[in-house]
């Protein structure tokens, strides 16, 4: 009976699914924008579907080999996509990029969220996008706005409602954005298992993204975490092959039945002459053994006939399947009390359900009552927003009705959560829109490509940013916060991927004052993830282009958005600009991609007590951090030994390489030598031969002799009289360099020589320098001058540099140089000179040179070789990233700005200078009504306390100012803020509180500042510009030009901390204190063109003689 009952229930469920109400939509469509629904590349205009595999710069192809059973095995060519989407390919791979290029996606709803999603689709390479909204004018306005930055995007507006059930196969994905829930449910029920479906909604500080990719959705790559590669060599070949690892690996790392990617140089196979690609084979591991401390693997690959070569292997995840349910099933399942029986049915239908990502105050991926309360609030808002005829403005009657409706949907709904939701839904919080838009695009791309692990649900609840101490949202306070956030001044350092997203969000947050620093220029590869650039901006400054295009989006209303084409450094120019724009309401946003830039900005923030918001991206991972003056640690304090920079020009690069990275760095150095350094040297020689040769001798005889040969080779080309002669001589030059730098026959040799010829030919330019009149007396004079210099050089005792044999070689080389007819001809009548070429990733000849040089050198030293895309990534130190990850990082960072503003309203911050614990010995009372004056035993040192801080005087001269902070009172304030980390490939999110600053206390009882707590945020301000004398009779300040003396500063510091000051350290060096410099002016010893310098104090305890840590001095001249 139980079995029969179960069967009947299952049949009833299936019948209910099968008889769902149909959605009656019209079938006729009219395209009003764009040209081809199947256009695979919206950035590149109208490229037809049959050209998908021929996108500019693409060299992808599929080849075949044999496995042990003689069946064909697919070998994917990991080619290079040197167009707009090369960074996307670095993250997702070539096959995924093909899937994206051919995809057609339907967007339902024309609104601001749609704008964000479509922009991500375009930058990721989605082939074509269709928009449906029952208000055609909204669709037209949306497309016009998108076209400002994406003029060639292939966007099609549908004039009539699509029939989702019949046309599901037309689209790879259908995306509902801020649409009525019931419409989305009905459409989803009809297209389940026919088309990928995504639904998203944003309200205030909340966001929801639901995905239905059908049952048995294939995931071919779990995450972007890559297993390490190991170099191997063949030890036997047959229908199966033994590989022996040549790099260190533990036997336990591999096991039987593992799948591995084997990367090999396909062009080395005899039957593939003329091919130059690197290919990847998927193989199964049959056995794993350990011999002579090396691991050997038996793989199911037939390598008979293969030459001996070094290959690489890396483990890969096995594909797996995930099950998704329709939106209607999801809502019913989370709000119904599930019995064991219904859970059993879910197990039957959803054997491997997709996961959930919850970005909420109580993180974790397990649903609880708070999460269900938020979702019920979404459902209640959906019912009221699309059905309620009354006002949507905040009023208490509506508020009570809203909470009751939430309770009706979910009886256990938390009233506080529903109340906060209803209050916050009145506010537009742009970072939430950007975050949800990025998640929608990201999950859709996962569904299309089957790359990375998708989630069934992304739930975002950032109400925690706006809560008061009792956990409630104060509507009036939040209203003030929106104004505070928009009135802050923002310093954006970097106008790349993060910088562009920051700027777009700030503009939508109604921020009025922004300054952005960046000295870089736009490259075509930037367009796929840097949202403010167009193809017309390539070659132009990033900062200028970003501000220009941002103003285009906002009708030129952003008058106080300023750009500075400068690298943010400690330079005078940068300081002058920053000082002119800085205010005490400034927030710094770090969007730089290097450690040194971050540290420079962090130092600036410490000096000026500015909050710093920082983010980092790598592939599908991103992290965000926030650093608040006196509340948290600083960015620099978290680095420690990470600040050490590795020297890339190590012996492994210039000597014997050990890794493919070494060979790539070598090829970049060789490129620079052949096409930059040599050309600069030759042009100097053509202008002034004697001076150039004399300077060359300073580098030693080997360098000198090599330079003589370089002159001969290049003058041979410059002496040509016709184009055909130039071609012949450049070919001769290329072959000569091949023998010198490569030295063995290789299938890549033709590519290398061809790239050299193209590059060298491109360097020839009409000669601009003055031609020399060459005759015998001129040549004799040059030779005599050089010989005199050589003789003098030898007489100076430089025998180590110039031995007798070397001396003779140099004499001989000079004579031969000027006897060479081509050299003389070039000096006298050359019609060309050389220009320099620098490596550009979008130039075929540049990339061919680096690719061939790196791999030929790798082959020579038994290092596994790499494809062009990987070589490019190493050469350019490319950080792989896609636009969706960038937006999630940027939006998460900027949300913390709202927390800064809300906490300022609750008096969490404030420079509390409570000095009750400070022991000023022998206090003498109060002078005047403003100053609290405290005398020390040494009557010449005294202190005053005012709203300007604790000021130290030597006699009646102001020496230094310190602003103490009450760290005891604020020790837990760091818990108000969060650092975030995302691994978006597997949809994991972690957050933690920043650490409080490291506190050190003045512990010497005899110190005037005994008991005072200090951190790295504190500094001693010594300001010459505000230095003044205090008149004891009038109790007024008298400004004089007398500078502060070193001895006066030393005496003040020793009194404050009861230490002995040994010296000072600044960026220009160390200064030890002595009787002479004690009487010197500070401005004589410390100078900086910026007018400001940070000085560290070298001091030790007066009693224990131990080194003691003191705040730095911020010296302003």
TrEMBL record:
Source superkingdom: Eukaryota
Family: Belongs to the ubiquitin-activating E1 family.
One GO cellular component term noted in the UniProt record for this chain: cytoplasm
Listed PANTHER family: UBIQUITIN-ACTIVATING ENZYME E1, UBIQUITIN-ACTIVATING ENZYME E1 C-TERMINAL DOMAIN-CONTAINING PROTEIN
Signal sequence, renumbered to the chain: 1-20
Annotated protein name in UniProt: Ubiquitin-activating enzyme E1, putative
GO molecular function: ubiquitin activating enzyme activity
GO BP terms in the entry: DNA damage response; ubiquitin-dependent protein catabolic process
Keywords: Ligase, Signal
Pathway participation: Protein modification; protein ubiquitination
Keyword check for Amino-acid biosynthesis: no
Domain Ubiquitin-activating enzyme SCCH: 813-869
Pfam family, one: ThiF
THIF-type NAD/FAD binding fold domain residues: 483-901
Organism: Theileria equi strain WA
